[in-house]
Amino acid sequence: MEETISLKELFQTLKKRLWLIGLITIIAAIISAVISFFVLTPIYQSQTQILVNQAKSDQQLYTGTEVQTNIQLINTYNQIITSPVILDTVREELNLDRSVAQLKEQIQVSSAKDSQVVDLTVQDESPHMAAKIANTTAEVFQSKISKLMNVDNVNILSKAEVGKDIAPVKPQPLLNIAIAIVVGLMIGVGVAFLLEYLDNTLKTEQDIEQILELPVIGVITNIKDVPKATVRQTEPIGRAQRTRGETFGS
Question: Domain Tyrosine-protein kinase G-rich spans what residues (predicted)?
Answer without folding.
Answer: 142-194
